[in-house]
Design goal:
The chain has about 270 residues and is an alpha/beta fold. It contains nine helices and nine strands. Helix content is about 45%, strand content about 15%. The strands form two sheets. Strands 1-4-2-5-6-8-9 form a seven-stranded mixed beta sheet, sandwiched between helices. Strands 3-7 form a two-stranded antiparallel sheet. Strand 8 (about 205-210), helix 8 and strand 9 form a beta-alpha-beta unit. Helix 2 (about 55-70) crosses helix 3 and helix 5 (about 125-140) runs antiparallel to helix 6. The mean pLDDT is about 95.
């Protein structure tokens, strides 16, 4: 797996992109943490010979942790699908995962997904809707079409953008479809979020109030299984806090402060 690195010293933080299949967009978060932490940004596995599964992503992430972090239990900061992967990894390897930060976490039930879709539909005007209908003809390549969909929907997910550059290296539409299909299957079978009871590390949700993902509903679905879950909501903020003009500085202040405190506490606990 390709891994980008930021910073040269400090506790290890792994940042996980969302999508699934939207590789590279956590670069601004990595840079924003680099002066205090050693940050790893793995590019998650793309589509290939075998259909992608959540289990495969967990195995890949464990390989990164084992090869790059030594005895240290890294903090894991995930965005959207990346937040879901952070939870799935910590449930499978609770003794290898340090504190978890869930930024704009994805949904774990049909009710929350339906609420999210209603919000997006309400924000999508007729012009954008017609543009979406033309996308298969304008972009026959599914990866390019997924990238264009991400660009077109960014304003629907955002409040007041300081930049529209998401820094996405590439999109993998098949990876998106296969991974998300497997995650929904596991939810329907009752695996998630029930499995998250195994997580004993501190967990923080960071959510924008304008994010179509219904933060309070997602928090309510996770809290029975993660008693230590904390929740912070940012006003004038959508799905990507580091892109938001009003919320960016507060987002990084909260993220850096919480990581510093929890990693320090984790280090003290490990020495006892």
């Amino acid at each position: 797996m390709q891994i980008r690195m930021y910073g040269v010293s400090g506790p290890v933080v792994v940042v996980l992109h969302g999508g699934p299949g939207a590789i590279g967009y956590m670069a601004p978060v990595g840079r924003g943490l680099a002066d205090s932490f050693r940050v790893l940004e793995p590019f998650q596995r793309g589509s290939g010979g075998e259909p992608l599964t959540v289990a495969q992503h967990i195995t890949d992430l464990h390989g990164v942790v084992q090869s790059q972090c030594g005895p240290e239990r890294p903090a894991i900061v995930g965005s959207s699908w990346g937040a879901m992967l952070a939870l799935a990894y910590a449930a499978a390897h609770p003794d290898s995962a340090g504190p978890l930060v869930l930024i704009g976490c994805g949904t774990f039930d049909d009710v929350a997904r339906e609420r999210m879709q209603r919000v997006i539909d309400e924000r999508m005007g007729d012009t954008l809707r017609r543009h979406f209908e033309r996308l298969p003809d304008e972009f026959p390549d599914p990866n390019e079409r997924l990238r264009m969909m991400s660009e077109l929907t960014l304003p629907l997910y955002s409040c007041e953008l300081a930049t529209t550059d998401q820094e996405i290296e590439m999109c993998d539409a098949r990876a998106y479809e296969e991974t998300w299909t497997d995650m929904v299957r596991l939810q329907n079978q009752g695996v998630y979020p029930t499995a998250f009871t195994a997580i004993h590390a501190p967990v923080l949700m960071l959510h924008g109030r304008f994010d179509p993902h219904p933060g309070r509903m997602i928090q309510a679905s996770l809290k029975p299984h993660i008693q230590q879950l904390e929740y912070v909501e940012f006003e004038s903020c959508g799905h990507y806090p580091w892109l938001e003009r009003a919320a960016r500085d507060k987002f990084f202040s909260v993220l850096r402060g919480w990581l510093s405190r929890t990693l320090l506490d984790s280090g003290r606990a490990a020495q006892k």
